[in-house]
Amino acid sequence: MIESEKDCKLCGKIIYPTSLLHDLKLKICSDCYPISYELKEAIPILHLPWWDAFYLCVICEVKLMFEYINQKWCPHCFIIYSGCRYCLTTNIIFGYTKQSECNKCKRIIPTIMNKTNINIRDNEIGDFLYNTRNVISYCDIVEYMKEIDKYGDTPLNVYKCLKERIYKNFNPEAVMEWIPYSRIKNLKKIAQGGFSSIYQATWLDGGINGAEYSSSYRRENEVIAIKKFSGSQHVSNHFLDEVKSCHKCYEFERVIRCYGVTKEPEKKEYMLVMNFADGGNLRNYLHKNFTKITWKEKLDMLWQISSGLEAIHDANFIHRDFHSGNILLVKSYRKWKTGQWIIGDLGLSQPVNNITSNDKIYGVLPYLAPEILNSMSFSKSSKSSDVYSMSIIMWEITACRKPFPNAKSDVQFACKVIDGKRLEITNDTPKCFANLMRRSWDTDPEKRPSITEIRETFSLWYNEEDCVDQFIEAEKTRKKLIESNELGPNFTEKSTSNTIIVIEISKSSSNSNNSTNPFDTKQVHLF
């Protein structure tokens, strides 16, 4: 046990300060609180003087995985339950360690995990997944130990305290799991990109749903999406960045949920396990349904989309690859009429204070802000750059067609955008909407509104609290334009706007100030 007293209350021995907990001014009794081996930090271990016979995790109520009769662990919380068969006692270990010690007989109990169930020990992925759990702090343990006498002789009060007090802010949906590959079935490749492949599959266990463990459940045999990165036998920075971005930016109903990570055993490739968007992306949705989408529905869609981008910005991240192919529809979510719009593919997302200079720009060219094209670097990325991309999505939803469908994705087109070329606003667009769109694609990033202002404006319009007459007239005009075939996509046109453009600074022209050919381009297929 961790103590802040002079002597250990259990054994009476003098306890000494440890450098690991120096900042908290705590002390550890080495006899009553064994420190784990070969780990960066101390791991809390709760010694129970009884045999824990539960088959569900006392914290999250997930079914425990048994390695031996005396050893089990929670694949969701990463908590190990190690029992001593001689003394019928239990150590609850809040982390990974190769062994623990019985508090009564001092026997060393190995904690050997089945590598087919968990294969993340001693690497960056394992550290990150463990840290998503917001495990109990040393301060909470100390306060709990000080008050342990208040719980009397009822053993179950220990579990109640852990679940209700120490883990009270433990959001099960924000947690990422290590998912055994053996629990994933029916893989079917559905898309191929320049950097990764997307599969549809079935997860036998399913992800945990619910904001609190008391009302949470798993959706067994859940259909999921799996994203496999090219050459991911080793954990690349790109893979780890996307995992971290998914966790930091996740907000219920707004950004695609990443359930966790798995690893294909033969090729040893890491993969992300994510929520499956059964309605496809925004681009395809507009293609199929443009005649049916009223202005009221457009405002609803834009409110949902802007709420997702706002969640990313509130986490102090920048998306950097915001376009209609990365906006996904979950049709099975029935809170909204057409389903739930979420933002996906956070592979290029970065913290605001972590944008480094690079001689390559990845993205769909019509959505890239002019300051990025002008600097030929993502170092100029900002939240305002995402707002520019949002303005193009606003136009795309109003016009129901791809932005600049006939433009070549090349240097000349990029230079036109830098010089102020913008999309032609459709005749049915309300004046208030057009003004917001123009502000959002302003050449000067400082003059663009924040995504919060945009989201709040959509809310006012949707709830008919402002510009009501303008949207009534806009809907009438929209219907007339649809009837006369003057509004909507012409998908027979050849277009390169659904490709990823990799822009590289040319060594021979990187110092040139003219805009005739400042960079070379390479096209990569975008799924």
TrEMBL record:
Residues 184-462 form the Protein kinase domain. InterPro entries: Kinase-like_dom_sf, Prot_kinase_dom, Ser-Thr/Tyr_kinase_cat_dom, Ser/Thr_Kinases-Pseudokinases. It comes from the Eukaryota. The keyword Transferase applies. SUPFAM superfamilies: Protein kinase-like (PK-like) (SSF56112). One of its GO terms (molecular function) is ATP binding. The keyword Transferase applies. Keywords: Kinase, Transferase. This is Kinase-like domain-containing protein. It comes from Glomus cerebriforme.
